[in-house]
Amino acid sequence: MARISTIKNENAIPREDREQLSTCLFCDEKISKGGCWAGSKCIGVCKKCSQYLIDLFIDTLDDTDESFKKSSVETKMKYIEQMGVKRIVKKEEDSKKQEKYSYIKKLNLKYYAEVGIIDFFECTMTIVEAINKLSGVDKYNEEVLNGCENDVKEFIYSISREYPHTIRFFAIPDLNYGTFRLGCVAKIQNNGSTYILCGNRSYFEGIDEPGYNLTVKEVY
Ligand SMILES: [Zn+2]
Question: Checking DSSP bridges between strand 217-218 and strand 166-174, what pairing results, if any?
Answer without folding.
Answer: unpaired
